[in-house]
Amino acid sequence: MLPRVADSLSFLYLENVRVVQDDTGVCAYVEQPDGGTSRVYLPVAAISCILFGTGTSVTQPAMATCARHNTTVLWTGAGGVRMYSGSLAPNLTTEWLERQVRAWADDSTRLAVAARMYSMRFGAEVPAGTSLNTLRGLEGQSKPESTMAGTGRIEPDAQFVVISTTAVPDYVRGSLSRWLTEPAPGLYVGSISARVRDSLWEQVSAAVGEGAAVCVHPTDNEQRYVIKTAGERRRRVMDFDGLQLIAFRDLNPPGQGNQNEQPPF
Length: 265
Hints:
- The chain contains six helices and 15 strands.
- The chain has helices at about 60-70, 95-105, 105-120, 130-140, 170-175, 195-205; strands at about 10-15, 15-20, 25-30, 35-40, 45-50, 55-60, 70-75, 85, 160-165, 180-185, 185-195, 210-220, 225-230, 235-240, 245-250.
- Helix 3 packs parallel to helix 4 (about 130-140).
- It is flat.
- Mean pLDDT is about 80; it is low at about 145-155 and about 260-265.
């Protein structure tokens, strides 16, 4: 999955750390004042640029992961004041920007590109002889159909998402940690686009196995959020006319009362 720049955070500056790749993702080892070491996982797929300052080292697998996710790496002086060298992912070139500039600079090609984009977006052919101003008017009339549930509100690019996992494979945790932050074991939070969120949840759902996972993110309904689950869980999400409620599976056989009743968690 190749991320867009719009899906990423701006930059991260590191100093006096060692960056390595482990079984779940890229992490930085930070020395504490008491002599201990802390391990901080870096969401490299969600960062546009990482600046390595003084006293920083990085392993080859960690650099390979950064390149795989189109993360630019720069080696700088103290505080990021002076750049000594940099690593740019091969996919981050100006080729498409140059093509866009050439198409925009010519009136005929600009109109042809706009008409093609209109057809791809709205599924309707543009009549021959339509001017650019007329095409803009047609797009304005059709735009409400592309908004969320016809409410006239456009879905934002980045939304807050929460994903909780239990007993999932390490490589799934690694995929999540490259985009989201893990404040507690198995709990991942962050702001990502709907495209990235759906792709991550698809990976989690396909590999959950005997584990379980829950995803909560905003949406345009009465509750303003939606709950998605994967795997076997005691809790089940039930839909009551658009209202999502949680049902607990009864663990006690009928007729045995509450002798073995489990707490509702």
